[in-house]
Design goal:
- By secondary structure, the chain is of the alpha/beta class.
- Helix content is 33%, strand content 18%.
- It contains 11 helices and 13 strands.
- It has helices at 24-32, 57-62, 84-92, 109-118, 156-169, 181-187, 201-208, 232-242, 269-280, 301-315, 327-337; strands spanning 10-15, 37-42, 67-70, 96-99, 122-124, 143-149, 174-177, 217-220, 246-252, 257-258, 261-265, 288-295, 319-320.
- Helix 1 (24-32) runs parallel beside helix 6 (181-187) and helix 7 crosses helix 8.
- 49% of the residues are buried.
- Residues 55-128 form the D-glutamate N-acetyltransferase-like N-terminal domain.
- This is DUF1611 domain-containing protein.
- It comes from Steroidobacter flavus.
- It holds the Pfam family DUF1611.
């Protein structure tokens, strides 16, 4: 796989975002690569913040920033026209542009000309650097964990990163496998799976998780959701190609309908687990559910703990919030490892 070498430190661009869930790239970099982020830059209409210093591109360059990362991802992954002047300003200030959007930066004439004029780079993380075969379904050596979800943007990446870190802390041989733009920016390698032509998604997932030693774990960042009307295809391809030995179901407390499509109700956790296991058995009949990762960020501590306990009893598997950590998360880690 191609190993990216991205210009760091980063200045995080929030565009005109008003919903924190649309800025998951910026939030993920803040949380998992904060030592490589000098600040944030946003349009006046933005109402969210990463909590980092609000800087102009010129001020960020003076503090050592090497690139501006587009930290927001509106539906469709399109570079918005309202962003163009700000992105050009960053190029003029001496920053490269890093994007995980579907729109290629070089396809935006203003940015292409500005990059040439100021001698800067336009770096598209979501552009596949390899070609992949179709999936084979061949069983591979090693062990694999895939985070899956009832919906999009609710914690699959955070869960995979937290589990990979916990495995390493226990001395378990493991690798975080990134499948989205933010994960790739954090880890430096991976496959932007939703940018792969549909016929080759399973093959790309197989290439991402090759044969490994029997005690090695690939912890794979999930994408989309089998229950999302728009993004279920990429989720199924990733599920079949990854051939997980363990799935961890991710959900956000209080979310009852599909993000952006409120007319579609989410399944119960039990239904989501059952359906996912049924489909996963196509390429790994021995797959099991290690537990549930519940995003409880909107709940006070005591209420969150009560909800985690209730779901654990109802489902018969550990239920934890990886961000809160604690004994429940350690129980989830043990269950995933089978220890």
């Amino acid at each position: 796989m191609s190993i990216l070498s991205l210009p760091q430190p980063y200045l995080l661009f929030l565009g005109d975002a008003v919903d924190e869930r649309d800025a998951k790239t910026a939030m993920g970099l803040r949380d998992w690569a904060g030592d490589r982020c000098v600040g944030e830059f946003a349009l006046p209409t933005a109402t969210i913040t990463t909590g980092l210093s609000r800087l102009t591109p010129e001020a960020a360059r003076a503090r050592g920033a090497q690139s501006l990362v587009i930290g927001v991802a509106p539906a469709g992954g399109i570079v918005q026209p309202s962003w163009i002047p700000a992105l050009r300003e960053a190029l003029e200030a001496g920053l490269d542009l890093v994007s995980g959007m579907h729109t290629r930066l070089e396809d935006v004439p203003v940015l292409r000309r500005a990059a040439s004029e100021f001698g800067r780079r336009l770096i598209d993380v979501r552009r596949p650097r390899e070609t992949f075969p179709v999936g084979t379904g061949r069983r591979r050596s090693g062990q694999r964990l895939l985070t899956v979800g009832t919906d999009c943007a609710l914690g699959k990446k955070y869960t995979a990163l937290a589990l990979a870190r916990a495995f390493a802390q226990r001395g378990v041989s493991s690798t975080f496998r990134a499948t989205g733009q933010t994960g790739i920016m954090i880890s430096g390698s991976g496959v932007a799976i939703d940018a792969v032509v549909a016929d080759f998604i399973a093959g790309a997932a197989e290439a991402l998780t090759p044969d490994a030693s029997a005690d090695h774990w690939d912890v794979v960042e999930g994408q989309g959701s089998l229950f999302h009307p728009a993004y279920s295809g990429v989720s199924l391809g990733l599920l079949h190609g990854t051939q997980p030995d363990v799935i961890v179901m991710c959900h956000e407390a209080g979310r009852e309908s599909v993000h952006g499509l409120p007319e579609f109700d989410l399944p119960s956790l039990k239904e989501a687990i059952d359906v996912t296991l049924m489909l996963a058995r196509r390429t790994n009949p021995a797959v099991r559910c290690g537990g549930v990762s519940l995003n409880t960020s909107t709940l006070p501590f005591e209420q969150a703990q009560a909800l985690l306990a209730r779901h654990s009893v109802e489902l018969g598997v550990p239920c934890a919030d990886p961000v809160r950590g604690g004994a429940r998360f350690e129980e989830l880690v043990s269950a995933c490892l089978g220890t």
